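Technical annex B. To support the medicinal chemistry partners, we prepared a structural model of the target in complex with zinc ion, based solely on the information shown next.
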Amino acid sequence: MNSTRTRIAMPFALFSIAAMVAFGQQPAGRGPGFGPPGPPPKLTKVKDDLYLVENQAAKMSDLAVYGGNLTIYLTDAGVLLVDSKFERVHDDIVQKIKSLTDKPVKYLVLTHNHSDHSAGAAKFEAEGAQVVISTEDRDNLARAANQTWLPSLSYQGRAQIVLGGKEVVLRELRGHTSGDTVVYFPSDRVVCAGDLVTLPWEDIPLIVNYGDGGNWTDWSKSIAELLMMDFDVLIPGHGPAINKQQLTELHNKMVKVMERFRALNRERKSQEEITQTLVREFNWGSGPAGGVIGGMMQELR
Ligand SMILES: [Zn+2]
């Protein structure tokens, strides 16, 4: 399944946003949304057995401190989580879970390796959860500096977890990294997309992480695959839940950006000219997205 993928060598070390925020840095050309964080994340009911722990402000300021979205799935045999946020909100998350059920956390599925989604995972594992990630993103995690912990279970392509008689489907749909996982809950018609979908467009832009083997071409195909899945609610990696129509609109916008990029690149526009054009025409290309323009110039020729 990885035959067509090529890793693009970057001329400089490209940090993920997650790595930057984890180390208290801010991406160059900081866009709107940076500043002091708001109050701690809130619990949102999505379905009777499915809850979202989301930041109160879908802005970089809250992302940097609390991390990405975390999904809680309840079964009679225990809880399955999607992503962990940062470890500093671990106790708050455990309290929120306890307000819903007295069952233990049995599984924690990581959508990808970035710390705003995975840094709290070791603590959940220490408390008894089985952590699962794609093999590709386990490798990405293993390559990260100062990584002291790795999940013990990984998969490629597709996996299924049945907990308390309820089915959860894991699919590897890469793009943001080389092995993004989307988590599908068929009985609820809900899918967690990880950072293949981030919102809102202006504050937490869609970005490829080239350093972790992501690329725009795979990612666009992955969104097309997602659109073929049978869901009503999509929980993104950051920002509020959306429906299928909203994902279609986002996909159309992504494809337009990609086509415009390719045209500008073929006209041999400079990095600065490309950035300015994308900011002007799509309100995209500044802030964290600005850091990936160089990689896109190599990919989208
Ligand atoms: Zn990420």
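Notes passed to the chemistry partners:
The domain at 17-245 is CATH 3.60.15.10 (Metallo-beta-lactamase; Chain A).
The first helix runs from residue 17 to 22.
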